# Entry
Amino acid sequence: MINIIEDFFNKESKHPAFTELQKSIKTYKNIQISQVAGALSSIILLLFYRKTKANKGIYIANNEDDALQIYNNLDYWIEQLQLNDKIYLQYLPSSYKNFDTFSINSSNEAMRLQCSELFADDDIVSLVITYPEAIVEKIPKSENIIKNKTKLKIGDRVDLNFLIELLLYYGYVEVDYVYEPGQFALRGAICDIYPFNANAPYRLLFKDETLSHVKLIDVVSQMSIQELTCIDILGSMDELNQTKVSIFQLLNINSIIWTSNFDLTNNNIEFFLNQLSDEINKEFIDYQEFITQINEFTNVNFSNTNVNYYDKLIQFDVKPLPIFTKILKDYHLFCKEKIYEGYSIYFTSPHYPAWERMQAIIEDMDIENDTEVLAYIKYLPTVFNEGFIDNQTKIIVVPEHQLFKKYLKPRLLNKIHKKQVTNIEELMELQPGDFIVHIQYGIGRFAGLEQLEINGNKQEVIKLMFKDDDVLYLNIQSMHKITKYICSDAKPPTLHKLGSIAWQNKKNKLKKHIKDIARELITLYAQRKAMKGFAFQKDNYLQIELESSFEYEDTPDQLKAIEEVKKDMESDYPMDRLICGDVGFGKTEIAVRAAFKAALDGKQTVILVPTTILAFQHYLTFSERLKEFPVTVEYINRFRTSKEQKEILRQLAEGKIEIIIGTHRLLSKDVKFNDLGLLIIDEEQKFGVAAKEKIRQLKTNVDTLYLSATPIPRTLQMSLMGLEISVCYELHLLIANQYILK
# Structure
């Protein structure tokens, strides 16, 4: 696969306009590149720094999202082409969480320190990707960072007490678990340190006052993941912050500044600086400084608007991709036309199943010459934030997300795998006043973190408030004993009193209820074990097309859950699976795909919900998602007239309705199914005892999928025989943005 990626970039490197750019940079100081589109600017940056001896560069995108997209492109390509030792790529964000206060994002601050260090080494090729708000923020001097570091390597004699004193002097904070830069934790002869300028913390192990091991650790699981030989500990940030300068003052004279539309960048910077408060303004260079300093370097501007202050214009002939209205039919015709014109077409996605999906859909559409067209489309297993048509090199790039109209989520690619465990990250999401559940004492309120002096040592503890202002201080090492209180009911819960038996009584009552459920489950699963369920067929092109039409990029958890559901449905043993995740985490989309899969095999799906409003909401969602497919969706609740209900039930019994959505009304004796294959239950805990009994009778030999926003403890998962759980942890980015705007 590396060869095809290498071949692609080699073809683009022969672009006549790119060759002209390489020559022009040696002669001209202000260059404009026009007629560019899509990810071409990223390609130009990669090719230039792969071949040139110009060793420093900064690319200023129009905004933070664009900067992340460019960074993602380059980060992916550099790793795939094994250029990590040739090009040092770094992302430069602003260190501020917002610009009205001095609230610092320590992870962003660490990345800024790394950028400064990169510019100190003139022997390496380094490229920094940034955006207007970040480029004008002052940065610590490179030489001060280097002078302010202490190096420790395996075999060094180290007095642990002296090391702790040194860390405290440098401004590091002692905690129980390190989770952000500027912290350290001590446990006997083990010291965890998260340096100010690091992407991840380190674990130092000492034996007889000698450093015996250095390990990189996962900030979430707190487990060591990689052995190292040394560590650099950065000193006091206070000292570094006193000598901040403009980032342009760190560059050598041969550096190149790349901008995405220089005029727009200038306007954005000027507007931003004018909005800053006097208190924070001193942390940024002023607009005139920016203009003066940037003009000291060679400037290359990507812009399709001609301006007169550039002394060299280089024109590409690159156009954006057309919008494929009917998706694959339009795409097929587009490819056919361009292939006959001599173009090479690349379908790009980091996920090979996406390539298989695209091929399968075109083949199943039974379009004339589809095999011939597919033979000319090449698969490029990489990331492109945006496709393009290059009319000079006759190359077309079609990214998966553009073809299937998905949103490509910009993100910093994290090289460290994080395990899905209860962790310090969850604690940091709690806000003072949030309700929590303590396994021993019941429901209380989170009151923040405090430092208490215990046996002469300061320790960070969690403060919890209970009924009658009872206070409990919890060691962070015992944080696994609390979870955030989650309930779909907006009514606030009743706090428990420390020392009372109310919580214990509630737990005992729940245990009894669980035992009752377990007895019923034993009977039910004995019956189900003796029966064979229906084994659904593998996905066909219609299933693939439905999934491709989802407007958001599937999260990793969602993809995993969907695969697990499909595997269960394709088995001949009746499915029992719970999909757990909060609002906006993709549970309904999983249900849509499962119901459609059932419909494609001629099976009916019943979706039970606890409220009439939710029934109608699901009806709108399912109808909208399935409107282009031969599936009939209906709903039934108390707002439908008797005549409407009677007609719906008649069609349901005759098999004319594939998906029926409703409340407990669907559990009535007059409801008959033609061929029920899938039962989906949303928020089962809200159904009454009588309704649950009817549900159990209904699900004896059909696949069953539960949806819930309420997390289930692992102990309960184990007690529910045969019930498998899939959890969706991650919110779709667009939905998250909507909540933020609200």
Observations:
- The chain has five domains: 2-143+241-316, 149-235, 320-403, 424-500, 510-741.
- The radius of gyration is 30 Å.
- Confidence is low (pLDDT under 50) at residues 414-423, 712-721, 733-742.
